[in-house]
Amino acid sequence: MAGLIRNHVPRLREDLVDGFRQDLEETVIDAARWPDLIERASRAAGSEGALLLRSERIGLDALYTPSLAGAARRYFDEGWYRDDYRLRGMPMLRARGIAVDQDFTSPEEIARLPYYQDLLASHGLRWFAGIGFEVEGRLWCLSLQRTVAQGPFEPHEQTRLAMLSPLLRRAGLLTAIVEKSRLAGLTQAFDVIERAALVLDHAGRALSWNEAFGALFGRALKLVGGRLTAEDPEAARHLEAVARPFGRPPVSVVVVARRDAQPIVLHVVPLVGPSRGLFAGGCTLILASVPGIAPVPAASLLQVVYRLTPAEARLAQALFGGISLAEAASRFAVTAATARSQLKAIFAKTGATRQSDLVRLVTGLAR
After folding, report:
1. Helix, strand, coil % (nearest 5) of the chain?
2. What is the mean pLDDT of residues 128-146?
3. Does residue 57 contact residue 202 with C-beta atoms inside 8 Å?
């Protein structure tokens, strides 16, 4: 086949299944390790990179290795996911736990389809193996991507890769259990700082809330069919938009008027990083406040929402205030290396990739 250099084709590692099983055990304990897991799985499978996504809602829950960042951005930003040719492989994913391009695509189709010749070819990609597994009735796919030179996944490789499907299913189920417990603990943790909190899933339904938020329910603000709604028509429209399935919250603040009391101000904070439950479905945090009550410092909220240490939260809030990392290190009497290490940990826990992302995140919590 043109472009295929057999002498340089990497193959699956001999310890693929055993190594993957050990990695999964660590991932269940800490869901934040799932990105590392798919990176290691990609290398073990002799792939250029990998994505982990839900097949029926591609993109919203996706994780991908850094090597596929450019291709993934095009895939989602340009709408390729709406007509993903590889969705033809879903019946194979369900039936035997794995699907490859050869199952549903001919060489002639690869040569002419824009999906292969535009999206994939522009990033040097060609071949895929999708490992399917179900978590609570939803089909997920670990999509391994190879370049033209790396070659397609051969039948004997497919057989070994299919062995990962039940392992992924078990790990996904256990992770979902852990994440649900943590989401419940997240809302309860806000009781410590006397802040009302509620978590929405990706479809806009309420997953959990603490007693402080529950105390605000009444005629003005209530749950109907698991979704937040308000008596005030304008607030009801905003809450409907926030709860709209499969989209990012279009507003950051919703003011709910009340007839006999001060209005309730709802702050909409998208969950990212480890705080976003990959399998449990936690997507959006709603923080409620009432005018006249002293606001909670953003540093305290950062510790609760993103599990930052006090030092990390202090640094994040200082950077939000406009000082440089060097100035923050001097102010807190730590070395530059320590400050950089703390910033790296903040990025890992919050999902931010640059300080401007961090500023927007803290802005949302500081309101």
Report:
1. 50, 20, 30
2. 92
3. yes
Among the ranges 98-102, 162-166, 243-247, 322-326, which has the highest mean pLDDT value? Answer: 98-102
Name all contacts of 345-349 with Cβ < 8 Å and 24+ positions apart: 345/308, 345/309, 345/312, 346/306, 346/308, 346/312, 346/315, 346/316, 348/32, 348/273, 349/32, 349/273, 349/274, 349/275, 349/306, 349/307, 349/308, 349/312
Cα–Cα distances (Å) from 53 to 58, 138, 192, 280, 326, in that order, read 6, 11, 35, 14, 39
Q: How far apart are CA 307 and CA 253, in angstroms?
A: 23
How far, in Å, CA of 187 to CA of 305, rounded? 9
CA neighbor of 338 nearest in space, from 347, 350, 348, 329? 329
Q: For 49, what's the count of Cα atoms within 13 Å in the CB-facing half-sphere? A: 17
Residue 14's CB is within 10 A of a number of other CB atoms, namely 10
CATH class of the domain whose range is 6-175: alpha beta
Q: Where do the domains of the chain lie?
A: 6-175, 178-366
Please tell me the pTM assigned to this model: 0.67
Per CATH, 6-175 and 178-366 having the same topology is answered no
What is the fold, at CATH topology level, of the domain defined by 178-366? Arc Repressor Mutant, subunit A (1.10.10)
Mean pLDDT computed over 277-291: 79
pLDDT digits (tens, 9 = 90+) for 226-282: 999 999 999 999 888 887 655 555 557 888 999 888 899 898 887 766 556 677 677
Angle at 251 between CA 249 and CA 253, to 5 degrees: 120
Average pLDDT of the residues of the chain? 82
| pLDDT for position 2 | 40
